[in-house]
Structure formats: C-alpha cells, structure tokens
Amino acid sequence: MNNCIVIIPTYxxxxxxxxxxxxxxxxxxxFHVLIIDDNSPDHTADKVVMxxxxxxxxxxxxxxxxxxxxxxxxxxxxxWALQNKYDFIFEMDADFSHNPxxxxxxxxxxxxxxxxxxxxxxxxxxxxxxxxxxxxxxxSYFASVYVRMITGMKIHDATxxxxxxxxxxxxxxxxxxIKFVGYAFQIEMKYRTFCNKxxxxxxxxxxxxxxxxxxxxxxxxxxxxxFGVIMLRLKKLxxxx
Length: 241
Hints:
Helix content: 25-40%
Domain Glycosyltransferase 2-like: 6-172
Number of domains: 1
Family: Belongs to the glycosyltransferase 2 family.
Keywords: Glycosyltransferase, Transferase
GO molecular function: dolichyl-phosphate beta-D-mannosyltransferase activity
Shape: globular
CATH superfamily: Spore Coat Polysaccharide Biosynthesis Protein SpsA, Chain A
CATH class: Alpha Beta
Protein name: Dolichyl-phosphate beta-D-mannosyltransferase
Structural class: alpha/beta
Distance between the termini: 35 Å
Radius of gyration: 17 Å
C-alpha cells in the first residue's frame, strides 16, 4: 500500500479540482489523494467521482453535508488517513497556491530527514510569495512574527497550509479538541506538535496566489487567529491544551 496521502479540502473548486488531482497524481512518487468536499454547489464532488475510475485506488472522496470550515475538513481527513494506515499525511490547497512538485521536498524532510512535521514555508528564506497584494503579504508575515512572540515556536511561517505530518505526530494530538477553522487551525496544529516535542522543519517553497476560483479568506478568520494564539498559550500555561 502507498504510505503517502495528500488531503485537499474543497468548496466550489470546480475550476481547479481536476487539474490539481492530475498534477499530484502525476508526480514521480505515487501519492494518493483524499478530497474532502463540503457539498460544493458547483458540483466539485461530481467531478472527483468521475475521475475515481481513472485513478482507481489512488483517489478518494469524503463528501460532507455542508460547509463547515477548513479546520474541521482537515481533522476529518486526518482521522480518515490514520484509520487507513498512511504514514505520511499532507495538507494542500486545491488552487495551485502550493506547487505539487514540492510535495516530494516535504516527504524527504520527514522520511529522510529528522522532521515529524515538515512545513512548506513562504518566509524561511525571505518572502517567497507571488501575486499577493502587499497588504496580504504583510498580514501573513507579521502574523507569523506575532505567533513566534506569543508561543515561543521558532517557525517563520506558522500559518502555512502546505505541510507533511508523520503518522506518530498526528496520533499524539487529540484531534477531537481541535476547534479552530482558518489561520488559527494551522497555528494550533503546529503548536500542539511543538508542545508534544516533535521535530518541526521548514522547507522553502514559492507560494503563488490562486488564478481561478474564489479566495476563502475573511475577517472572521483573521480575528480568530489573533485571539486564538493567545488562548492557545494560556491553555498551555494552565496545562489544559
């Protein structure tokens, strides 16, 4: 059985889903793909079903009843991946913000390197972001600075959504206690990994903003991240994380 699964949450990604699936499954390493679709009105899930016969045994679909947030989608995917005995579990966006060719870099950092969590980092070697407005770059960059100050994690890209976990790192986290959905979800997963004393490594990537489809960013996601980091730190201080 293949030991690598790439989890891709989708909501109204009909313009991207076939292309991203083909790109991931065409890599030299034979990855598997799990799509977590939140009942997209544009029938994203139907397109995945059409492709499953072509990629039999490599492409999987979990369709949820309604849109319930990025964090819960990934938690659903993590549980599925652990139940199905995968050893390396990846997070990846559907919109080509993350280059499928970088998947092997993350895998190598975990399989051949010392990482229990490998992060595809936009900021570990400067600012490697394409097509974002300056305001968005500054927001993302200084969010990670803020996270480092509050949590003590030496991570340059705490909000990154392109990562690889070793199975053991996810098994050590109580996934039922993960409640955040956006930036804060990405921070919380990294912080829980850090608090469990697993090794975290950053792999430099170039992040390219989507060219098709709609961004899911909102003010509520930003607010959740700002206050969520403080809440995580306080929970850690009183041993309730």
